[in-house]
Amino acid sequence: MNDYKAQPPVGMEPSGATPAGDSVYQQIRDDIISGRLVANERLVVAELAQRHNTSANPIREALQMLRGEGFVIISPNRGARVRPIDQDFVRDIYEIGVLIEPALTRWFVGMATSQDIAQLEAVQDEIEANNFADTLRHSELDTRFHTIMYERHYNRHAAELWWKHREVLRAVSRRFDFTLARRAQVMREHRELIALIKAGDADGSAALVAQHVEGSGRHILEHMRAAETARAS
Amino acid sequence: MNDYKAQPPVGMEPSGATPAGDSVYQQIRDDIISGRLVANERLVVAELAQRHNTSANPIREALQMLRGEGFVIISPNRGARVRPIDQDFVRDIYEIGVLIEPALTRWFVGMATSQDIAQLEAVQDEIEANNFADTLRHSELDTRFHTIMYERHYNRHAAELWWKHREVLRAVSRRFDFTLARRAQVMREHRELIALIKAGDADGSAALVAQHVEGSGRHILEHMRAAETARAS
DNA sequence: ATCTTGCAGATAATGTGCAATTTTAGCCCG
DNA sequence: CGGGCTAAAATTGCACATTATCTGCAAGAT
């Protein structure tokens, strides 16, 4: 039994959501990620309440949470809209990742045990076994790879920030396929990262992770640009 | 006329708050910052509603927002509490600042006009004229100094993140006084930073800002530790 | 004797329906 | 074709009903 569902690092997401609010939050979030709710679409409280068999308050709470994560924009007296996840937004997000992840990695290199390494290698083996055949599964394994490194970091805020941003990028990249070049690069970088961690090279690992995140971000942006020009014609 | 009230960078804080909710948010926030609401104190919705002459919903909204900024902790079915701003929390926050601010600075160095430099120097002159006599005023001037550099950054998320964290640290440091050593260092670093920006030295500026933020964080932590040991005796 | 366990009652958070205010869209008129 | 008025729609705020948690205490077990 091997569940490869991507999960937030333990102890994270203090949510602060009420039972019903959290449920609705999950569903609306899924609807946005999957594209059932389209960019700039208006999110009418009454309508959502009806669709989710609840009342206004839980909906409002869910919308507030989604605003906090960047999926929704709320303007006073005007209501909520689905945030258009454009290139600028994605760039903002991954740039912050480029700043944070290397620092998280650096700490991990100093703390990693042989068990941690073994875990990383096991996940990487699964990634290579899957070899992007199931892209959703790849996404989850890849997330797990990074989670292993970050989940025990002492700076819970930084880790939470990373997770929040990761989720947004995952949502976007779900719509695209990996180019062959990117696939090869991901494999190479993961393997090399493991080697650097084994060697205890904190600076090297941090630099590589920065490059890895940067590459991931650029890859997504390229896809978005391609999709946009395709739409224009 | 020279208002030196610290203000968020323009276009920031898309708030997403309803009129009443925003008002209550401001007041509760002030109450936490000023210490009228003490660490771990329970925030009862009905009571707050009465005190602020409103009903439950605006209170809940305000609490959600405060949770997003780290001032409040909410647990489902148990309500909200004032977040104890302990040393770990402060360390988490300023460490993220150390990661983000240098990047924001680097961009500014590439974009700064002579007018920007003049603004920085003008603010720095005011800072030196005040010379920590009015610590609140110093805090606001210092914030303005950094805001000049960051407010036009293209990455609005990074800038907003910086602002949110800055506000928390400002809230904490309001309780302490600057040591003489720290005062001197702040002056030195600001002056040197201006010089580096003038020279167009992006890397040097970034490194100096990292050191500056690090120093500020450590300074606050030292004060907190001192206050705690004083309380223990 | 002490600790655990189970049970009311109180307290407060959560969810629901509704009234009031604001925005929005349609429509008539110039 | 454009500007102001009116009605519908949606957000916002409020009072109340419901549900969950906490407190204190008593009964039973170790």
CATH-defined topology of the largest domain in chain A: Four Helix Bundle (Hemerythrin (Met), subunit A)
Just give the CATH class of the largest domain in chain A: Mainly Alpha
Mean of pLDDT of chain A? 92
Give the assembly state of these chains: homodimer
The CATH level-2 architecture of the largest domain in chain A is identified as Up-down Bundle
Q: What integer value in Å does the Rg of chain A equal?
A: 19 Å
* Morphology of chain A: globular
Helix and strand string of chain A, N-terminal first?
HEHHEEHHHHHH
Question: Which class do the helix and strand fractions of chain A yield?
Answer: mainly alpha
* Percent in strands of chain A: under 5%
**Number of DSSP E strands of chain A:** 3
Low-confidence stretches of chain A: none
Written overview of the protein:
- Two copies of one chain form a homodimer.
- Chain A is mostly helical and 233 residues long.
- Chain A folds into two domains: 64 residues, Arc Repressor Mutant, subunit A; 146 residues, Up-down Bundle (Four Helix Bundle (Hemerythrin (Met), subunit A)).
- Chain A is built from nine helices and three strands.
- In chain A, strands 1-3-2 form a three-stranded antiparallel sheet.
- In chain A, helix 5 runs antiparallel to helix 6 and helix 5 runs antiparallel to helix 8.
- Chain A is globular and about 55 Å long.
- Chain A starts with 18 loop residues before the first helix and ends with a helix.
- In chain A, 34% of the residues are buried.
